[in-house]
């Protein structure tokens, strides 16, 4: 393992600087950068959504390249970044305070399960909570514009959100309120496509079937734990509690491909 870590093929992260943003009293369950990297959203078990914005000076002096660098080049980049930050903000203590600001706080009263930025605007933020509701928050207006109810279950947990990169549509996964800590208590899940403009449901995706361990033993609809659109927004990739990865076309509510993964 040690030899592999030192091999040329091994890729390492070089820590240029560390910033701690505080504002939650409990566990933070979901975080998202906006696509331009300017804003950061975090939702917690304390039922609070917080949004921070980074300063122009800090963003301009942050490395943007993803190329692999030699150790010497990475070290040079680290010192270059630290010097740039000190020139703009002064000493390290004031730099931490000056590089970001809290621009939004929403008290949701129930745990936040998922957050996601609209990729086309970088202004709209979706916040899904453990009462089957999704808030649409505007960074420009700094307020909630609309609340959408995804399920009639009053304790349904929004577990995943994904915005299309090309059209005003997002998908939301909600788990039933049944305790899923035991096999007997696994509840069903729902995956819904919703209009970002109106908040109306467009379609519900079929999650049953696909060959996973739950479907083989007669389980119901599985619970989606993650969802992501492809580059043009025509297809949706999901991972679920039944051990099945599914690919959907947005024009159909049934998967065009499904395969079992990560189970024996």
Helical coverage, percent range: 10-25%
* Main pleated-sheet profile: 4 strands, antiparallel
Question: Strand share of the residues?
Answer: 35-45%
What's the Cα radius of gyration? 21 Å
Q: What form results from the Cα inertia axes?
A: globular
Residue runs with pLDDT of under 50 for 5 or more positions = 179-186, 214-219
Strand arrangement, largest sheet? 1-2-3-4
By helix and strand content, what is the structural category? Answer: mainly beta
Number of strands: 16
Helix count from the secondary structure assignment: 5
Spell out the helices and strands N to C.
HEEEHHHEEEEEEEEEHEEEE
Spatial separation of the terminal alpha carbons: 26 Å
Mean pLDDT across all amino acids: 80
